[in-house]
Design a protein that fits this description.
Layout lengths: L2 E7 L2 H12 L4 E12 L4 E11 L1
Antiparallel strand pairs: 1-3, 2-3
Length: 55
């Protein structure tokens, strides 16, 4: 049965580390990746997210 895991981090390095730890030993079917940016009036805020499909 296919499963889904979703990650969301403010820093790309944190997302990369979490994905690498999670996929170790798993049968990954696909990874979808997205970056979003917003400005809250004081600073830019980034959101690095990924959805992993795995068996």
């Amino acid at each position: 049965m296919m499963k889904v895991k979703i990650f969301d981090f403010e820093h790309d390095e944190d997302l990369e580390e979490a994905i690498n730890e999670f996929i170790d030993g798993k049968n990954v079917v696909d990874i979808k990746y997205q970056i979003a940016m917003m400005y809250d009036g004081r600073e830019q805020v980034f959101s690095y997210s990924a959805m992993i499909l795995y068996d």
